[in-house]
Amino acid sequence: MSTLLEIRGLAKRYDDRLVLGPLHLAFETGETVAVIGRSGCGKSTLLRLVAGLDRPSAGTVTLAGQPIRPDDVAIVFQEPRLMPWLSVADNAGFGLQHLPRLERAEAVAEALDVVGLAGAATKLPKQLSGGMAQRTALARALAVRPKLLLLDEPFSALDPLTRAGLQNHLGEVRDHYGPTVLLITHDMDEALVLADRIIVLDGPPGRIVAEFAPRLPAGIKPTAPAFQRWKDRLIDVLGPASQPTGTLTKLEDHRHAV
């Protein structure tokens, strides 16, 4: 695989306070990377810098060696942020106004089918459950076929059953569209289920304290011994809640018997 997203010396200050960085990261094309850490360690700041929503105080973020363009990136936030006066289909196609009508309709139909909302295209947001609303937001992000999909704790407000279903949908999305994915999450189980690689931040200022790739078998249950072993490693790296670890740990890839 080739490197798609590259972060070099990225840092963010607010006034005189360093809140993030410097960070150095590279993401391969089609890779899903989860960034986890305690509240306030800079996870969402990192996403906003990568998305271009905030300007870095230092460093660069490039996509295939070039500055990131808005058309290259799509974001799904914790809240669906749907427009209440538009149908599911019109919300999903909101970023495609530049396309001819038929082409736009085909892209929306494809995205809604992938997220399991083909039968809900004419519904309004007020008629949707929380899970359906978040799937609509995911369809809107996918319809533009972004090279980079940014997910900012997109499932954290949902009940466990709905969250598990959406995690499955994300796997289907990745297989169908093939974007490189940056997932911000505080949920260790979610990171282990979805990510090819996990980056642990601690701070402030937010710095990388661990990086590892569990490569657990697809469909593994959180109760499986291998899953629990990796979760224990993750807990060990994060350290006590009141005391940042402060040192970089790189855990090599391992495969455990389930």
Topology:
Layout: E1 3-14, E2 17-28, E3 32-36, H1 43-51, E4 58-63, E5 66-67, E6 73-76, H2 88-92, H3 101-114, H4 130-143, E7 148-152, H5 160-177, E8 180-184, H6 188-194, E9 197-202, E10 207-212, H7 225-238, E11 249-251
Parallel strand pairs: 3-8, 3-9, 6-7, 7-8, 10-11
Antiparallel strand pairs: 1-2, 1-4, 4-5, 9-10
Helix pairs in contact: 3-4, 4-5
Q: What attributes does this structure have?
A:
seven-stranded mixed beta sheet; 258 residues; 26% strand; disordered C terminus; 31% helix; alpha/beta
Question: If you had to describe this structure to a student in words, what would you say it looks like?
Answer:
The longest helix is centred in the middle third of the chain and has 18 residues. With 258 residues, the protein is an alpha/beta fold. It starts with a strand and ends in a 7-residue tail after the last strand. Helix 4 runs parallel beside helix 5. It contains seven helices and eleven strands. The strands form two sheets. Strands 6-7-8-3-9-10-11 form a seven-stranded mixed β-sheet, sandwiched between helices. A four-stranded antiparallel β-sheet has the order 2-1-4-5, covered by helices on one side.
